[in-house]
Specification:
Elements: E1 2-6, E2 9-13, E3 33-38, E4 41-44, E5 50-56, H1 66-80, E6 86-97, H2 109-124, E7 129-140, H3 146-155, E8 162-163, E9 166-167, E10 171-172, H4 189-219, H5 225-238, H6 240-254, H7 257-262, H8 264-275
Antiparallel strand pairs: 1-2, 3-4, 4-5, 5-7, 6-7, 8-9, 9-10
Length: 284
């Protein structure tokens, strides 16, 4: 934090924190927090992240099935992904000795005596513990830079081919329309349209695999057929990680899965350019 002075007034100006390469001199250089911007809300040094902790109460997750746990996680993800940027959840359980118990009025003296005995046992027994649950949400906003311009080139001006409100750039869809079924995923028309497009792409990719092997068998010299298919298989396996790495890198940089998958177009264009130099006749 720096102080920008104007006349007799001073105003806090927050700039990006750059960690020191040498050994820190002060304790403030070690802690990741910058300032308390609002009651209970902490501003972090790195990328202006915001952090807030909540004391929570909810259902006992140990007593519900894995399917219900998965549905709850999907609901939380649907809410958090709308804020954009990157976020992280940290949970904490604190065990402490029972200090107080709520007073329960009883109409009859018998249950009142039983409750008094139970309260006395809980308050005096050293092993009596209660658990408090806390949830910390950390959010990093998307960095404003030229990435937004590149995202606009790939996605268009605030549009995408499949969104909760639009199909294929032009067909409107009501976000509040009833779900098709009760499953927590793939229960809307945009989601099903996305699955249909992906399935269609998979059909063409399978055909490309078959055609590539057919073409290699047609152009490879007969006496070197085994060597050509060996190199074909080795090259495909050795560079398979490049596609996954590229999708992951673009997704992380632009904070968008659509941009990440659109990066595959780079390899498609390079492949089309390379095919222009392939001779279709068999090599002697």
């Amino acid at each position: 934090m720096k102080l920008a002075e104007k006349g007799t007034e001073s105003m806090a100006a927050y700039v990006e924190y750059i960690p020191r390469k040498r050994k820190p001199d002060l304790l403030s250089d070690e802690v990741p927090w910058r300032n308390m911007v609002l009651p209970g809300q902490v501003l972090q040094k790195w990328q202006h992240g915001l952090q807030r902790s909540y004391r929570v109460r909810g259902p006992d997750l140990q007593g519900i099935s894995r399917e219900e746990q998965g549905a709850l996680m999907l609901q939380a993800n649907e809410v958090l992904k709308r804020i954009g940027g990157r976020w992280m959840l940290q949970s904490e359980a604190q065990r402490a000795r029972v200090q107080t118990l709520p007073v329960v009025p009883w109409a009859s003296p018998v249950p009142a005596l039983i409750d008094q005995e139970r309260r006395q046992a809980l308050l005096t027994t050293p092993g009596s513990r209660e658990t408090a649950y806390f949830l910390t949400l950390t959010w990093y906003p998307p960095s404003p830079s030229t990435r937004q311009g590149l995202r606009w080139l790939l996605q268009g001006p605030e549009t995408a081919s499949m969104t909760p409100d639009e199909l294929l750039f032009a067909i409107p869809w009501d976000r509040a329309a009833p779900k098709l079924w009760s499953l927590p995923f793939f229960n809307t028309v945009p989601e099903l349209a996305y699955i249909g497009v992906v399935t269609l792409i998979a059909v063409f990719i399978t055909a490309a695999y078959a055609n590539s092997r057919t073409m290699l068998a047609r152009i490879a010299p007969p006496e070197m057929m085994t060597e050509f298919f060996g190199i074909y298989s080795l090259s495909g396996t050795s560079v398979a990680w490049i596609g996954s790495f590229t999708v992951q890198w673009f997704t992380d940089v632009f904070q968008s899965q659509r941009v990440g998958f659109a990066s595959i177009l780079i390899f498609m264009v390079l492949g089309m350019i390379g095919m222009l130099f392939v001779r279709e006749e068999r090599t002697a």
